[in-house]
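Students often ask why inverse folding is considered easier than folding. One informal answer: many sequences map to the same fold, so there is more than one right answer. In these notes we will look at a single instance of the problem. The structure comes first.
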């Protein structure tokens, strides 16, 4: 299959997924939900050479690149939630925010601001989501740190949904203080 061809035949999608060319999100769209469990990506055992985003960085998989520098790359999401949905990734392989080094994280923050302003400049949306999922239970499908930049507009169907009753009762000040102390006592220095 010629991966430089931007239009892939749907018959080859399963093959591309098994070879690591696209994330599981496309598979979710194509497979009945009862068949998904046997096709889930084992993120814990994924190696850099199997990583979709590392393949984009190396040029093995095509991408519509917005910008890149020595540390990071921004490109269009192939499954956009809304027009203008793009991703920012570090070029080096970090699984998520828990293992990225502080210098790369700082650089990503600066470039994220720039990418968000670019999206705003083109689409003038009423809102923009910047989102990172850390781990599969948080919704991370590709175990390579990536930040979604998603323009939002009134009436679109995407969004974070809080559970029913989320704001019915505030946490007690005592509970908040206890949780805050636990978090402040964790050593996160690299």
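Output (designed amino acids):
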């Amino acid at each position: 299959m010629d991966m430089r061809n931007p239009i892939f035949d749907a018959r080859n999608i399963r093959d591309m997924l098994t070879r690591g060319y696209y994330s599981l999100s496309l598979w979710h769209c194509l497979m009945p939900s009862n068949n998904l469990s046997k096709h889930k990506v084992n993120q814990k055992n994924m190696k850099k050479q199997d990583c979709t985003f590392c393949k984009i960085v190396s040029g093995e998989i095509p991408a519509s690149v917005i910008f890149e520098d020595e540390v990071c790359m921004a490109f269009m999401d192939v499954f956009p939630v809304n027009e203008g949905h793009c991703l920012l990734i570090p070029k080096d392989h970090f699984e998520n925010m828990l293992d990225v080094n502080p210098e790369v994280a700082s650089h990503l923050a600066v470039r994220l601001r720039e990418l968000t302003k670019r999206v705003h400049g083109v689409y003038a949306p009423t809102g923009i989501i910047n989102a990172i999922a850390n781990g599969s239970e948080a919704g991370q499908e590709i175990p390579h740190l990536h930040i979604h930049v998603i323009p939002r507009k009134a009436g679109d169907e995407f969004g974070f949904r809080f559970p029913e009753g989320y704001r019915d009762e505030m946490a007690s000040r005592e509970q908040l203080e206890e949780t805050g102390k636990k978090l402040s006592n964790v050593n996160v220095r690299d």
